[in-house]
Amino acid sequence: MKVFDNTTKRFFLASWVSINQTETNQAPVTQLHPSAPQSNGDLLQPLRQRIENIQINNPKLAHRLCKLIPAQCPFERDVKLFGKKLFHIPPMCKLNPFFEEVVGLRFRALCYLADECGEDISQYC
């Protein structure tokens, strides 16, 4: 006796999902990246937008970005003396106001190398 014989015959779809057209038209639309700068006093927003708008269409540029931008925060350290941990220096990268944009730029460069160029990116991970 096989388990497959008993389980597949009793499989059925429990419910159907239907999307009402009038409900979808009334839903509010939210943007993840608003195109107009918000008036929250963020003076660094133009530089953030400039980093986000960098187009990666050159393998040489993508390799350079992957080499320059580290995969992990290089400042996190455990300070040890005679094998005993004295203190821990937390990662300071989160204090960088452009951290999210720079990490996103590195990710786009890795995706370009892997998807468009078909290269092995394991050396950058």
Radius of gyration: 24 Å
What letter string, H or E per element, gives the SSE order?
Answer: HHHHEEH
Main β-sheet, spatial strand arrangement: 1-2
Distance between the termini: 48 Å
The secondary structure category is mainly alpha
Helix content: 25-40%
Q: Stretches where pLDDT falls below 50 for ≥5 residues? A: 6-15
Shape: flat
**Residue fraction in strands:** 5-15%
Largest sheet: 2 strands, antiparallel
Mean pLDDT: 77
What is the subunit organization of this protein? single chain
Number of strands: 2
Number of helices: 5
Protein name: Mo-dependent nitrogenase C-terminal domain-containing protein
Pfam families: Mo-nitro_C
Structure write-up:
There is one protein chain. A two-stranded antiparallel sheet has the order 1-2. By secondary structure, the protein is mainly α. The protein has a domain at 56-124. It contains 5 helices and 2 strands. It is flat, with a radius of gyration of 24 Å. A hairpin with a 2-residue loop joins strand 1 (77-81) and strand 2 (84-89). The two termini are 48 Å apart. Residues 6-15 have low confidence and may be disordered. The protein has helices at residues 3-7, 21-26, 45-52, 59-68, 99-116, and strands spanning 77-81, 84-89. Residues 43-125 form the Mo-dependent nitrogenase C-terminal domain. It comes from Nodularia spumigena UHCC 0039. InterPro entries: Mo-dep_Nase_C.
Give short descriptive properties of this protein:
Mo-dep_Nase_C; 125 residues; 9% strand; mainly alpha; Mo-dependent nitrogenase C-terminal domain-containing protein; single chain; flat
